[in-house]
Amino acid sequence: MRFTLNGREAQVDAPPMKRLLDVLREECALTGSKEGCGEGECGACTVLVDGMPVVSCLVPFAQVRDAEVVTIEGLEGAHPLQKAFAELGGAQCGICTPGMIMAAVALGPNPSFEEIRHGLAGNLCRCTGYEAIYRAVEGAS
User: Fold this and answer.
1) Quick one: pLDDT at residue 141?
2) Is 106 helix (H, G, I), strand (E, B) or coil?
């Protein structure tokens, strides 16, 4: 199946009902997206599909045909959010960090505090209590 992956055309041969998370990790060797729960509840596997944040553990691979998929690797370590998470303590154990960053990327530039809280509500963190994450997203704006 053909789709755009991190800005490049990709052709991947995988079963259409295989989870997008598994295709990214196994077929594409992009292991930045993490499986936290496998039920769409934690947000650790969040990626962008056509600019919208989705939990890739619930998305069948067939749904990204001709779509643009961006993973944490697609940011290439150069996004201001990645720098802010590192400098402002938004990253702790690292399990939720890729999903948090991808959900925050979808918020666009200069989100309000309420937009940040709402936009990250589907992403769970077991380490921080969220304040450092909110500061990191605000700091990147």
Assistant:
1) 83
2) coil
Q: Which two tokens stand for residue 82?
A: 């990645």
Distance of CA 51 to the CA centre of its chain: 11
Give first-to-last CA distance, the chain, whole Å. 36
- Residues sharing a CB contact under 8 Å with residue 131, sequence separation 6 or more, in sequence order: none
Rounded CA gap, 31 and 119, in Å? 23
Q: What is the mean pLDDT of residues 8-19?
A: 98
Which among 76, 103, 37, 50 has a CA at the least distance from the CA of 136?
A: 103
DSSP letter at 64 equals G
Neighbour tally for 114: CB within 10 Å: 8
| pTM (global) more than 0.90 | yes
